[in-house]
Amino acid sequence: MSLLAHIGANELGALAAILAIILADDLDADELNTLGNFTVALGSIMLVIAAQKQFLKAQQEKDSTKAQQEKDSTERKQFNN
């Protein structure tokens, strides 16, 4: 998904609007509701996955920092003795 790294926020919003208009042109109200609800569900699940990835990354960084601090503390104690 490196393409997303090269698209600005406004451009991405415009692209979404254009795609929605193009898709809506050939669908009736029931089909639009179904597709819209599916898209919302898909986006919600993607947000849950992204949030969990961020949480796990933050936990890993926190654990790594804590381990490094403990190592540094142990080394200082050994040096002082």
Explain the layout of strands and helices:
Layout: H1 9-25, H2 29-80
How would you explain this protein's 3D organization?
It is a single chain. The chain is an all-alpha fold. It has one domain (2-80). It has 2 helices and no strands. The protein has helices spanning 9-25, 29-80.
Could you tell me how far the N terminus lies from the C terminus, measured between alpha carbons in angstroms? 53 Å
Mean pLDDT: 91
How many strands, what sense, and barrel or not for the largest sheet? none
Q: State the helicity in percent bands.
A: over 70%
The run of helices and strands is: HH
Query: What is the count of distinct domains?
Result: 1
Shape: elongated
Tally of contiguous helical segments: 2
Give Rg in angstroms: 24 Å
Number of strands: 0
Oligomer: single chain
| SS-derived structural category | mainly alpha
Runs in which pLDDT lies below 50 for 5 or more consecutive residues are none
The proportion of strand residues reads under 5%
Describe this protein with a few key phrases:
81 residues; 2 helices; 85% helix
In short:
With 81 residues, the chain is mainly alpha-helical. It has helices spanning 9-25, 29-80.
